[in-house]
TrEMBL record:
<dbReference type="InterPro" id="IPR035901">
    <property type="entry name" value="GIY-YIG_endonuc_sf"/>
</dbReference>
<dbReference type="Pfam" id="PF01541">
    <property type="entry name" value="GIY-YIG"/>
</dbReference>
<feature type="domain" description="GIY-YIG">
    <location>
        <begin position="56"/>
        <end position="145"/>
    </location>
</feature>
<protein>
    <recommendedName>
        <fullName>GIY-YIG domain-containing protein</fullName>
    </recommendedName>
</protein>
<dbReference type="InterPro" id="IPR000305">
    <property type="entry name" value="GIY-YIG_endonuc"/>
</dbReference>
Amino acid sequence: MNKDFEKQYKYIWKTKTSRDVKYKQTSSEYCTKFVTELEKTRQVYNVDTIKDLPEKISGVYLIYSFKKDKTLKFSYIGESINILQRWKTHIYNFKKENKESSKFRKKEKKLENLRFLVLSEIEDQNLRLKKETYYIYALRSKFTNTNTKLANRKMRCENGHGVKRTFLTYHKDKPYFEMYIYGTCRNKICDNKFLIN
């Protein structure tokens, strides 16, 4: 086992899961860069322009906002069979200041600062749920991300069973450092372990 890889993994894990302020800058810089790179390859919408998104696009989406210094204020990853309708629901909840929007409003007070983008267009629900989990792990941060769960209970293993848990790891026997997200089946007989990407 490569000791440097183990150190890298532990540092990344801490950056994604710790509330310790010593990881805050690294976490914020990484998440800001990740979202900024996404903006280069995807259409960014705001509250006024979401109407330009075609109806009935299924997939995974990101809602976020930036601070004045262009660092990420918050991020939220979701999935839907109809992204436009889901975005409208998020906006409605934000305007009504109800419980469903409280996690957004704790981070962002102004509706006009919200940004929306489609991460991936995916019809199949299980593939959507896997891709949603992938992006939640990618943007996982105790300082900016507002997702409360890593994986949706509706996600299934390759054999159609429910998922017991998901986890971030790396391959210890590869000559280079590369991280992966896996899911494990809750069915004890199946015990399927599958890659989430």
